[in-house]
Amino acid sequence: MTKRLILIRHAKSSWDAPFDDHSRTLNNRGRTSATALGSYLKMRSDCPDAIYCSDAARTIETTECIVAAMGTTPTIHHLNKMYNASPAALWNVLRKAEGDVVALVAHNPGIAFFAEDVVDKAPDHPRFIDYPTCATLVCDFPTNDWAKAVSHSGQVVDFVVPKDL
């Protein structure tokens, strides 16, 4: 059996309001992108069983838009330790994850470095390295236990950015 991982960088956030970084919400473009991504995942039948999400406002709102567009009810975990998390911290979250299809919604640069670390071969996409807002990697791991997932073993299934949708 395999496990499927979906890595999502939060959608485009607003800089208009005088909030601290943790409190920034999405702008209209970000909401549109996150909704389009949710529709895309639904069309591909890549709806996660569980979503592990940073507790920052922009990641929570990204997750809400995606879930609304998918029309599903995954288990959602808001975790402070995913706010500006390192790849090592994201590995810790993934290795304790539950579900066959799991999504992590987090921030750059950690999510970009984590994406590079999980795949055996980078996708042939010019935006993979910089992992722009709402960039999404879908990859499969040859394991039936997230605790046994290891670096560079994820097989790329898809990689998209909002402009691809």
Can you describe what's shown?
Helix content is 29%, strand content 21%. It is an alpha/beta fold and 165 residues long. It has one domain: 3-Layer(aba) Sandwich (Rossmann fold), CATH 3.40.50. α1 crosses α2 (57-70) and α3 (87-95) packs across α4 (110-118). It has 4 helices and 6 strands, in the order βαβαβαβαββ. It has a 6-stranded mixed β-sheet, with helices on both faces.
Question: Could you provide a short overview of the structure?
Answer:
The chain has 165 residues and is an alpha/beta fold. It has one domain: Rossmann fold (3-Layer(aba) Sandwich), CATH 3.40.50.
Characteristic terms for this protein:
single chain, 165 residues, alpha/beta, Rossmann fold, 29% helix, 21% strand, globular, His_Pase_superF_clade-1, His_PPase_superfam, Phosphogylcerate mutase-like protein
Number of helical elements: 4
User: Which series of helices and strands comes N to C?
Assistant: EHEHEHEHEE
Strand arrangement, major sheet: 3-2-4-1-5-6
Q: How does CATH name the architecture?
A: 3-Layer(aba) Sandwich
Largest sheet: 6 strands, mixed
CATH topology: Rossmann fold
Distance between the termini: 30 Å
Question: What is the alpha-carbon Rg in Å?
Answer: 14 Å
Number of domains: 1
**How much strand content do the residues show?**
15-25%
Architecture blueprint of SSEs:
Elements: E1 3-9, H1 28-43, E2 50-54, H2 57-70, E3 75-79, H3 87-95, E4 101-106, H4 110-118, E5 136-141, E6 155-160
Parallel strand pairs: 1-4, 2-3, 2-4
Antiparallel strand pairs: 1-5, 5-6
Helix pairs in contact: 1-2, 3-4
InterPro entries: His_Pase_superF_clade-1, His_PPase_superfam
Binding site for substrate: 58
Pfam families: His_Phos_1
